[in-house]
Amino acid sequence: MKLVSKIILLLGALSVVVKFSLAVDCEKTPKNNELRLKKDMLCTYDKSVRPNGGSKNATIVKVKMVVKSYDYVEYNNHINVFVWMVMAWTDDHFKWDPREYGNLKTFYEMSDQIWMPDLSLYNGEIQENSCETTNCVISSTGSVICVPPCKYSGHCAGSFTRWPYDRQNCTLNFGAWINTGEEINFVPAKNSVETTDSLLNHEWKLVSISMKKHDGSYACCPNQTFPSLRYNFILERHASIFTVYLLIPTIVLFYRDSTAIIGILALNTIIVRILMGLECDVPHWLSSPVDMVKDSAAGKFVVDPSKIKMEKMEEGAEDDTAILVEPKANDHKNTTKWNFVASLIDRLVLII
């Protein structure tokens, strides 16, 4: 344990040394073109000041959401999304002539060292929403592009009426936490939502994502606006597993315990009893199919499997005993046929 503590302490000290070694020293003039560029750009820079803050023009921030993964939590109707929030704006402070810095047209700076738009989720859990610090690309034209990885958790209007074939509608509402629309204007970038590299979710299918900007005009503040970007997620449950393990057994149990089945069985019993007591001739349209089924192996097995072996054993003795046995009465033959029909119906009902 002592060795582990020493290693952690050493790594912490090393990270501090590296951080200070990479920091811009505003007192010295570095010979390295990139360090000289950073010195000129950052030593007189205040990250708390909004770009073009002295003018009446709002800072236009283009926003694009790249969805990497998502999950829906049913017990509290929340959607959790992990996204890359691509944000781009122009800062006149970061403009320079590349020829003065060895033809350098871009440099990188950590997002916590420059001004960042306060894009916040209005309808989410504050403690669950966070964006990590990342490198931003700063160009000689004043263009700043940052792509922080963020995790957001927002409320959904959950509905389980059609479970397990339900769809959930979730909305994430983003906007500036402090600034008005006259100070920071969030606008959707071209192709404002991207899901091509999103990880598959085995429980929920992402049907669609749509984005719409709301101007945020309210009666309380006629001279100010509070615009927001609303991302609407439509999720559909993968219901195949529920169909196999829940719906099919439910249907089987329903038919097994249904009152209708009891009625069918009772009706079958009555019909079988009536048929077994009939002594009249079997109709010709029924007699031929009955004889065909009766003589087949399948018919003998369904009605009485023991008859297959018994009849084979009796085939050889039939000729010898034919003279001794009196011919069966016609009514007995009819009764035998009706008994076979009754037995066949009874077996078919049992199978069904």
UniProtKB/TrEMBL annotation:
Gene3D superfamilies documented for this protein: Neurotransmitter-gated ion-channel ligand-binding domain
GO terms for MF: extracellular ligand-gated monoatomic ion channel activity; transmembrane signaling receptor activity
CDD domains to which the protein is assigned, alphabetical: LGIC_ECD_cation
Every Neurotransmitter-gated ion-channel ligand-binding domain range: 36-238
GO cellular component: membrane
InterPro entries tied to this protein: Neur_chan_lig-bd, Neur_chan_lig-bd_sf, Neur_channel
Pfam families, per database record: Neur_chan_LBD
Name of this chain's protein: Neurotransmitter-gated ion-channel ligand-binding domain-containing protein
Organism (species): Phlebotomus papatasi
